[in-house]
Structure of GMP synthase [glutamine-hydrolyzing]:
Amino acid sequence: NWTPASFINETVEKLKAQIGDGKVIMALSGGVDSTVAATLVSRAVGKNLYGIFVDNGVLRKDEFQQVLDIYKQLDLNVKGIDAKQLFYDGLKDKTDPEEKRKVIGKLFIDVFHDEALKVEGASFLGQGTIYPDVIESLSVHGPSATIKSHHNVGGLPEKMNLSLVEPLRLLFKDEVRKVGLELGIPYDLLYRHPFPGPGLAIRILGEVTAEKVTLLQDADALYTKGLKEAGLYDKVWQAGTILLPVKSVGVMGDERTYEFTVALRAVTSVDGMTADWAHLPYEFLANISNEIINNVRGINRVVYDISSKPPATIEWE
Ligand code: XMP
């Protein structure tokens, strides 16, 4: 019978047999699947795992460092690449959501390829593919372009002649999480909300700038912390903040302000295909609104999104 411990033992043995003393390159995102897959590979081959984690400038506040710290704690051989400026330059003047996604996807592939080519003699590419991804890629419609965009590592396997290493191919998400817990991966990482590959770039409506990212990161961090403290984080499927391209008048002390608005989004859902807006308590919303407006300079108004999917989507872009 299946247990996380038996799965780990068997998988590590299989990985050892498959990889031998080869080198495995892998893109890590800080997400559940890539972290669990990398930890299994690392148990099998140690420092012959060459993980690459890219800071694309649109991660959550402090996320890059926090995730690198966790990788270190798990003894994973991962290189963090600060590519923030490259992404901000690429996103300059881009306002169309799909165009923003394309820029981020392309730059990620560029950065990842550059780094991967530095790993001499690599023969494997590790991936956190799970069973639902396999099914989806077999469907007549092919893999959905948006949802899987952060798994896309471009034509690297062909270019470098790499074989795939996919230790989670037969697992469902809940099994991946159980394996992760058994491997000692922190609960918070394993049970965090889904976060889109293009990150905060699609939660900043219109042009993305470093300044707007900082504003949104600050507001988002207060919202996430508030949800956790109120015991609401695990009750919603996904939550996030959206920076609207709208300035409005406010008042602070004797001063008139003219600043940005953030929308708070929280949904309940099973798989993200349909979703209801979460009925968060008014008291909680009132506290978060005050927290954000009092602590994030540049935001003077907070609204709550009460739209369900369909016809709205979870993200605003
Ligand atoms: P929507 O906005 O379509 O989102 O209701 C459904 C789920 O998909 C996520 N999402 C994305 N994930 N790249 C991703 O990796 C994307 O471009 C992307 N767009 C949406 C969204 O966060 C939600 O979980």
Remarks:
- Residues 101, 146-147, 149-150, 194, 196-198, 238, 272, 309, 313-315 surround xanthosine-5'-monophosphate (CB under 6 Å).
- The CA atoms of residues 115 and 164 lie 18 Å apart.
- The longest helix spans residues 97-117.
- The first strand starts at residue 24 and ends at 28.
